[in-house]
Amino acid sequence: PEIVDPLGKSSARKPGGFEEHIEKIKKIHHLSEY
Fold it and tell me: What are the boundaries of the region Disordered (predicted)?
């Protein structure tokens, strides 16, 4: 239930968890560009 969470319930339990996940994705995409 924490992996697929369209309502962002897991993000509510973990403040900033979703933003941290986005930052990880950005870093991965940034590294894959080179």
Answer: 1-21
Which amino acid is residue 18, in one-letter code?
Answer: F
What's the confidence (pLDDT) of residue 1? Answer: 47
> Distance (Å, rounded) from C-alpha 22 to C-alpha 2?
15
> Hey, what are 11's tokens?
């993000």
pTM of the model: 0.37
Q: How far apart are CA 17 and CA 14, in angstroms?
A: 5
Block residue for tokens 């897991």: 10
Structure tokens belonging to residue 31:
């590294």
